[in-house]
Structures are given as C-alpha cells and as structure tokens.
Design goal:
The protein is 22% helix and 33% strand. The chain is α+β, with helices and mostly antiparallel strands. The strands form 6 sheets. The protein has a 7-stranded mixed sheet with strand order 12-11-10-13-9-14-15, sandwiched between helices.
Length: 414
Amino acid sequence: MVLLARGPVEVIARGEASILGKDISNSKIFLGDGRVWPIETRSSCDVALSIPRRKADDIEDFWTSDDQDKGTKIWEEVSYTIFHGMVSHPKSILITGPTDSGKTSLSTYIINQAIRVGLRPAVIDADIGQGDLAPPSVIGCGIVKKQILDLRELTTQYFAFVGDINPKGYDILIARSVRRLLNKINTGKEDRSEVNLVVINTDGYVTGSGLLGKIAIANKVHPDIIICLGEHTSDLCMLIKARKQSRNAPCLLYAKSPFLTNPIIKLKKERVQRRLNRFQRYISDFGKPGKIRSINLGKIKVVFKGLMYYKTFIASGDHLNLVNKYWTKKLPLARVFNMFVALGKASNIVGFGIVTSITNQKIEIHTNVDFFDTIYLSNIGISMRTWRPYMIKSSDEECDTIATEEQQTLSKSL
C-alpha cells in the first residue's frame, strides 16, 4: 500500500520509507503545500503525520492506495529502460503529458534514480505558467547534487525569459530557450560541466498549439528519450516522433499517470496562489522602498518576445521605440509602467525587477540587481500597491514597422 498525504504535512518515518525515490527512512521531514505526496514503505514501518487544520472540510488529508496504482512501482519499467535497458545512458529526457498527469513527480523520481546510480543530473523546467525553478513567464534550470523531494529545493543556475504565462504563440521562443539552457549546461564551467543527464519538464498543453510547442522543443534539443504520461498519450508520442526533424529517432516511452484512477485536480485558485507565491519569492527581497536602479535609455539593450533591440528612445512623449537593424517596435509608455522584467548581464539573466518610471532619458527599476546591460520586457505587470501580478493586454497603439533609414539613423545618433 501507498500512503498519500496532501501537503502541508510533517512526516515522521520509523522504519524504511521513501518518497519519489528519495530515502526518508527513520527521519522527520516537512512536505510543502500544493502537492499530494506518495509515501512508500519497504518493510514494516510506522508513519506519523502532523497535519494542520484545513479550512475546507471536504478536502482529504491522507488516504491509502495499492502501490500498483499510485506508487513509483508504476514507473519501474520506465526507470529500467532509462538506466539499464539502453547501450549507453541517455543524455536528455523530454517529459510530456496533459495537465495534472504527474510530470513533475516523474521528473523528480528520475532525478533521484539518476543520483542513486551515480549520475549527475540537471533539470530544465519549461512550464512558464506553473514552473518550480523560476518566476512565472521564465524558464529555469537547476543542477542536482543530491536526492530531492521537490524541484523547489534546487538553486536555479540559469534562467531564460519568455515574458508570458501562456505558452500559446511562444512555442518557437520556448524551444529556443530550452536549447539555450541545454547549451549552457553542456558548456558550463566548474562542476556544472559534469552533468551527464538533463531532464526537461514541460507544461500540460498537448493539443493544438501546445502539441506544436512540444514538437518544437523535440526538434531543438533532440532528446534521447521522450516520455509521454497519461491515458491515450501513445498518439501524442507518435505525433511528436512523426514531426521530429532528425534521422536519429528518440526512444519513446509511455508512462502511467499516478493519478489516473483518482485524479488530483488543482483548483484554479490553487494555481493562482501558487503562481503568486513564485512571483513573491523573486520580488520580496526588493519590494521595499529605496531599492531603485536608474539607467540611461541610450545605454541599455532591450529584449521583447525573444528579439533584441539595441536602441531605445521615447517618441512623441508617449511611446517607447525599440529599434534594431531591421525592425521597430512601439510600445505605449503606460504599458511599460509597473512591468515585471528580467535583467541581464553578458547574455545571462542575473535578476528581476519592476519598472517604476520612464522618461526621455532614463528608466527606473525596482530591483536588487546592481549592474545590468539588458532589460527583458514582458506582458506581466506587478501592482506596486498590492504586489500582485496582472496581465498587460496588448493595446491598439502597439505596432510593429520595418525600420526606415531615417529611424535607423536616429537610433544610431541616440
């Protein structure tokens, strides 16, 4: 039997036990909110749970299930194929599946199994809406040095900025960002160069444009293994394989969802709260008065929706003009105010901030980053009064034009 406990909960195991492949025998641990945790025992074991009182009476705190249905035993064949069934160990694994199918749980389990057999894994969390390694709208990458219970335990080494929490329309940018992070891992310095397995977790959109997004990632990173979770995902894997632009076909594996017969569906308010918590983790340390960084518009590069603009200036007093060699982007200044942004230095994202003011000469940003040369714009605003995120809707005043010779000359003079 598997004991399933809904976080937050404190667990005391007296005997041999594990969670997602991590040994928790004879130990006391705390399991965070927002997840259901499978506690498995390997021999006679007493498990004590300390659970806070819930506000909703209809939410179960814990229950038991057959290990053939909910435990990591359902992934034993997948694990054997990854670590023992191939001539050489795979270097990258792409995990796909619908929302709430268990992708993050499987990613954690594979990472723990990799640590157990002596590998050095890393994980790229490409879910820009509900990711664990970065604030929403950002892809994070972490190097794993020991077994974990939760991806949120990891320190993020690299970020890639998308700028929206909805992947629709960003499939190419997300795929390129994942590829860029993979390259950073492979060319990393110090202990990062020792990584020999990368697990790529994805969002739950697997139909329509969501399927195209997974195909785009597969074509960019060329994973050795693609795992599809959930019922009827064999069609998903075959569609990805059919559209993959490579002679080397990946190994396709189908994995059962741990929540197939009793789905653990996250409520909309739970998703919103979790997204808010992720934002607050990255803005709380600079969300105080006095931490304002001011920089001259003429000395900053700007990235918006994956495109780099080397010249920035204000035209007509109410529009921010972004200009590169071939393209001009005009954004209403009102849209930029309170915008959540990433800050970069030497092609690496070094932190995040909120735009508080912009004039003809300078842009001011609430942040704890001291030095940066690039600002990554988004479609997300953060209320400076409530510190809550909101979506910035596109305005009719926003427009794109081919940069004219006169505009290019103006941008050069600025």
